[in-house]
């Protein structure tokens, strides 16, 4: 029984936060064989089981991890207080909160911009264009996948997957087989596309913020990421019907300022990169500055609303354009704070729960059990490949937290490998990435855990092919 607990502890130490790495390991208590340690493992395991059953229980995934985080830290605080070391636990807690604050603010700005683009109807226009072109199901399968691959490096894989899923649900209707395959394709594409960009996934963002890989050094992962997407997509496309969807095309009028918001988002990303590359500040500083761009532009839209309406009405009347007159309703004020409120708060709170839970497990001392096995006794390449497989089971975010906590000494090639593996390995199961979890909710009943599971062997082929491609193409980076 004792060995079983040790094995479970070793496995679950992959769920540890990098934020406590700066605390001297000699300062904290080893609680791996204590009642508190076992209770913390049980709480986290139970919380994650509830997360995986979100589809069936209709229980938002943030709730169990938030509760588990509070209970784990309450137990840790009690033990450290009894031993007169409460300041050590407090320092660890503050480090975890700082890490989460940077992640929260970064994602909040990105989600606000995406919400703003959605409110200005950019994505409705994209959806209408695709429907209006009369594409058949097979063409739509490829178009949504390719778009997901190339949008996710900028808009992050979670947001991209949700946007493409909306298109699939619109055109797929009651064709459950098409919706399921298209959603699997979108999850794979979004995760693969996010693997070669610091903005494409939470895991790549963490590696970039930690300073292990610079912005430009992610690019060698482009071709392996393409292979990861193409291999399963080609196989699945043979099972897509060549018939056309029965949907009605409609014209979508973009709201005022839509294109300029896209430009401001690109400028925001450039600002974040500059803060990190030039000043060596956290990228979140640049992102928050970018939020100011959007706020000032929202102020401009509100102040010039009356003038814009007057000009458009005069032009429409002069030209006898009834359609333009009807579209004046789309020239509406813009409220940045309403866009902030539309962020994926359940996802953001879920990240908080994960960071705090695994930070507590790290402080308890389970980290040493796994780090000694994975990065001392194993070859780093095999360790990083296993990280990708684990990320499919437990979600790639806590897995990457664990690797960063261990701070293994690795070559650039291996840091890129673990980034690729954690990013695309999450595609193996629907619960392995935020994109998959979100789509199970968005396409409830049509894209399911077991519907995804049936295609796991095909997705595994892409996973193996992408890793092999990285080892061959970027072999010089492993020296």
From TrEMBL:
Any one GO biological process: sodium ion transport
UniProt subcellular location: Membrane
Keywords noted in UniProt: Antiport, Ion transport, Membrane, Signal, Sodium, Sodium transport, Transmembrane, Transmembrane helix, Transport
InterPro entries registered for this protein in UniProt: Cit_transptr-like_dom, NhaD-like
One GO molecular-function entry: antiporter activity
GO CC field: membrane
Membrane topology, as annotated: Multi-pass membrane protein
Signal peptide: 1-21
Segments traversing the membrane: 31-53, 65-80, 137-155, 221-240, 261-278, 284-301, 348-369, 381-404, 416-443, 455-473
Regions annotated as coiled coil: none
Domain annotation Citrate transporter-like: ranges: 48-423
Record-stated family: Belongs to the NhaD Na(+)/H(+) (TC 2.A.62) antiporter family.
Name of the protein described by the UniProt record: Sodium:proton antiporter NhaD
Organism the protein comes from: Vibrio amylolyticus
Taxonomic path: Bacteria, Pseudomonadati, Pseudomonadota, Gammaproteobacteria, Vibrionales
């Amino acid at each position: 029984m004792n060995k079983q607990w040790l094995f479970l502890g070793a496995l679950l130490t992959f769920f540890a936060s990098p934020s406590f790495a700066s605390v001297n390991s000699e300062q904290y208590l080893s609680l791996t064989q204590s009642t508190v340690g076992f209770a913390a493992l049980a709480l986290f395991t139970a919380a994650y089981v509830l997360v995986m059953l979100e589809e069936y229980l209709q229980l938002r995934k943030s709730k169990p991890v938030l509760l588990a985080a509070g209970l784990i830290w309450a137990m840790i605080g009690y033990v450290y207080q009894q031993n007169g070391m409460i300041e050590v636990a407090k320092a660890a807690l503050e480090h975890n909160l700082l890490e989460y604050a940077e992640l929260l603010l970064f994602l909040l700005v990105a989600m606000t911009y995406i919400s703003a683009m959605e409110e200005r109807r950019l994505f409705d226009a994209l959806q209408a264009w695709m429907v209006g072109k009369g594409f058949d199901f097979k063409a739509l399968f490829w178009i949504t996948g390719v778009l997901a691959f190339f949008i996710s490096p900028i808009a992050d894989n979670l947001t991209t997957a949700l946007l493409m899923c909306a298109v699939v649900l619109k055109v797929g209707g009651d064709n459950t087989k098409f919706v399921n395959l298209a959603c699997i394709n979108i999850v794979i594409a979004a995760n693969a596309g996010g693997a070669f960009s610091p903005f494409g996934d939470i895991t790549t963002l963490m590696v970039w913020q930690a300073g292990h890989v610079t912005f430009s050094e992610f690019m060698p992962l482009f071709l392996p990421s393409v292979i990861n997407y193409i291999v399963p997509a080609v196989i699945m496309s043979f099972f897509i019907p060549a018939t056309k969807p029965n949907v009605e095309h409609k014209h979508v009028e973009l709201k005022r300022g839509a294109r300029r918001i896209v430009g401001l988002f690109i400028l925001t990303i450039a600002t974040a990169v500059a803060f990190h590359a030039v000043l060596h500040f956290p990228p979140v500083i640049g992102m928050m500055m970018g939020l100011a761009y959007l706020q000032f532009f929202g102020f401009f839209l509100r102040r010039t609303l009356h003038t814009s309406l007057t000009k458009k009405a005069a032009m429409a009347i002069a030209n006898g354009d009834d359609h333009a007159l009807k579209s004046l309703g789309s020239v509406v004020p813009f409220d940045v704070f309403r866009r902030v409120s539309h962020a994926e708060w359940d996802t953001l709170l879920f990240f908080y729960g994960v960071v705090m839970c695994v930070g507590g497990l790290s402080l308890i001392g389970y980290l040493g059990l796994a780090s000694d096995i994975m990065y001392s006794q194993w070859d780093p390449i095999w360790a990083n490949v296993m990280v990708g497989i684990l990320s499919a089971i437990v979600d790639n975010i806590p897995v990457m937290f664990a690797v960063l906590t261990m701070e293994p000494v690795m070559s650039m090639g291996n840091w890129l490998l673990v980034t690729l593996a954690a990013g695309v390995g999450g595609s193996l199961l629907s619960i392995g990435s935020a994109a998959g979890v979100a789509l199970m909710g968005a396409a409830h009943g049509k894209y399911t855990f077991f519907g995804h599971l049936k295609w796991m062997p095909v997705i595994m082929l892409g996973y193996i092919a992408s890793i092999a491609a990285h080892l061959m193409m970027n072999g010089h980076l492993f020296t």
